Hints:
Layout: H1 2-34, H2 42-97, H3 111-124, E1 128-132, H4 136-148, E2 152-157, H5 160-173, E3 179-183, E4 186-191, E5 194-199, H6 203-206, E6 211-216, H7 231-235, E7 239-247, H8 253-266, E8 269-273, E9 279-283, H9 291-294
Parallel strand pairs: 1-2, 1-6, 2-3, 6-7
Antiparallel strand pairs: 4-5, 7-9, 8-9
Amino acid sequence: MIPALLASRRRWAMACSAASLLVAGGVWIASSALAPATNTGTPRAAIALGSGAAAFVILGLYGAVSRQLRSLRADVKKELRAMRQEQLSLTNVRPVIGSLPLNLSGWAVDPIFAEQLVFQLLERRPQLVVECGSGSSSVLIAATLKQLQCGYLLSLEHEARFAERTRAMEDGFGVNDHAQVLTAPLRPWHIGGEALSWYGFDPDRELRSRIDLLVVDGPPGPIAPRARYPAVPVLRPYLSEECVILMDDGRRPDEQWIARRWAAELGGDLEEMDVGRGIFIIRCGGDRSGLRTEQHAPSPVPLARGDVAPGRGAASPMPWSQGA
């Protein structure tokens, strides 16, 4: 990132310098051409006028270059701070995953979000973590739960090949006892009068207990506008009284709208962290028992005969449902 910034500013400065030289040369040539057609005093005046105009142009370009350089210094400082933060976060996370390599870049979870995941797990010691999406973050969550000797992770993945890849990673790290990756192709759900695509699974059948930590890093944003919004409307009746929701990609407009909407719907506290790709943390707090009568998990759009619709089917009661 930093070399690209430097190269861009360097090209801009070179272009400004070349432009100033061209302007100065053009003014000098024009003033010289006028000299034979004027009396003895005019060439000096023309040259002086041309020189002044060239100096004015050069000073203006110099000011523009100076502003660009100041902007470059600010961008470089910001980038260096971000790099230091990522390195510190990676140092904090590294003991959890041990000596085996785990990708924390590109499409995978970045080190800063990974660090927040670990901190939330250490603080809350959840019994059930539900993750929307899967990948390196799934391994990290399961490895942390294993070291804490508590909790279980259910990851929802709409792409079968990615689900298999995550299962293979979890097997390689030896954390299968604390994690499950559920292949849940996207299906339509009725939410607020709209049919929205989200993971097709049966919460009553798949959830072992109430959700203490909800990690939202899917479905991918390009699939549909505000693609991650259905997570709370669908899972709202299954959240524990003090559930925490953690969402990545907080710099994107869709995620910003979603986080604020969730906080309003749940009456929770919203924290926005301007680090990494942007992180939203929503702390529900309070009694969530009334949520079942306020808004039930939305009914899905009817599917083709033989399909199992999300939220329907032969479901065993949740362990906590009898006493809720």
